[in-house]
Amino acid sequence: MSLSERERQILKNVRFFSRMHRYGGMMPAKYLLLYENDDLGRLIAADYLERVVLSTPSNTDYPGLRLGRAGAKLINEEEAPVIRDGNQDIPVELVEIMEDIHHFSRIGRYRGLMPEKKARQYEASDLEDLLNNGYVYKVKTRSPGGKKNEGYVISTKTHHLLKKLRII
Fold first, then answer.
1. What is the domain extent for residue 146?
2. pTM over 0.85
């Protein structure tokens, strides 16, 4: 099955929601209203998307869609877009990691850094690339109570890049 540009965009948007833990890795039904039912139906029938329902302890059901096997395979096969920073190409996934580290460092509970436990959800090689290229620093701190904190913070270089991309 060949996909139209509109169907490819639907798959990319569903993939975007798959990284959001808040939505349980699915695109909620309220966001599906933006798309044609015919397009969604074709993608579901071809196993590019699958219907899911999240149930809560209070018996509330949240319907939505997530990538099916064929959809995940297609999206992963496509070349990852890159962002140009000076003379260096940065994959979008790395920019998303930098953005997450920035947002975690803004949460007071984490004392200005992204905890190492939270960073384990990312590929170790991606964090290694960010560390080696000076986009992220690994930090160890000790709070006044004696508690040790380990994690990551963004560098000034990353801060300027995120501002240039209008992410922050």
1. 82-164
2. no
